[in-house]
Design brief:
Elements: E1 4-6, H1 11-28, H2 34-46, E2 48-50, E3 60-62, E4 67-78, E5 83-92, E6 99-101, E7 106-114, H3 126-129, E8 132-138, E9 143-150, E10 157-159, E11 166-167, E12 172-176, E13 180-187, E14 190-192, E15 199-200, E16 206-210
Antiparallel strand pairs: 1-2, 3-16, 4-5, 4-15, 5-13, 6-12, 7-8, 7-11, 8-9, 9-13, 10-12, 14-16
Helix pairs in contact: 1-2
Subunit structure: Heterodimer of a large membrane-associated beta subunit and a small pyruvoyl-containing alpha subunit.
Pathway: Phospholipid metabolism; phosphatidylethanolamine biosynthesis; phosphatidylethanolamine from CDP-diacylglycerol: step 2/2
Cofactor: pyruvate
């Protein structure tokens, strides 16, 4: 089993639940600590950031998130790509790893935050209506966009990067708290290797390959 770390945003939930467990344990006895103890264990699991083996091949684009591929659709025009592309939509359940990773090595050239609604992350319209944060990453070979989208349980998107920040492929750059969705749009010179229903792991599973 690989090592994993806890993202810093998780500590307030973990230690908060542990504090409640201790308080209720003293007040009500051991049974009083059961539920908050279980919550502390779940928060530790939820905010995990496992080590991943990142493919070195520069032609490969990796998944920006863990979860299940909800759909793969053509995009007629993407503002950042300045042309058509292919969008892969990844649904994250409350049991998925919720950190986001850079699908390519490159520089953050654009970002946009929209404070939207909080519909369930599996709904088709969430990418247009829900709270979301998009970044555009570029290197000398291609551009991609990645959008973090909040779900019905999520109330905050976390991003640790800003304009002109440089990232290596697979670098952790953000987090969506609780059930959510992540979208990646790649240009048409990328052969998309994912399909609907695939189980994917951020930083490891291949989204696609740059065509020769």
């Amino acid at each position: 089993m690989g090592k994993f770390h806890i993202v810093r945003e998780g500590y307030v939930f973990i230690f908060g639940a542990l504090a409640v467990a201790v308080f209720l344990g003293f007040l009500l006895g051991p049974l009083g600590a059961v539920v908050p103890g279980i919550l502390a264990a779940y928060f530790t699991y939820f905010f995990r950031n496992p080590d991943r083996v990142i493919p070195a091949d520069e032609d490969l684009i990796v998944s920006p998130a863990d979860g299940t591929v909800q759909d793969v659709v053509d995009v007629e025009y993407d503002d950042f790509l300045k042309g058509p592309g292919t969008k892969v939509i990844i649904f994250l359940s409350i049991f998925s790893v919720h950190v986001n990773r850079s699908p390519i090595a490159g520089e953050v050239k654009t970002q946009k935050y929209v404070c939207g609604r909080f519909k369930p992350a599996y709904k088709d319209e969430v990418g247009f209506e829900n709270e979301r944060h998009m970044i555009g990453i570029e290197n000398d070979r291609l551009k991609v966009t990645v959008t973090q989208i909040a779900g019905i349980l999520a109330r905050r998107i976390v991003s640790w990067v800003t304009l002109d920040d440089k990232m290596e492929k697979g670098d952790v750059y953000g987090l969506i708290k609780f059930a959510s969705c992540t979208e990646i749009v790649v240009p048409k010179n990328v052969e998309v290797l994912m399909k609907k229903g695939d189980k994917v792991h951020g930083g490891e599973t291949i989204v696609g390959r740059i065509k020769d």
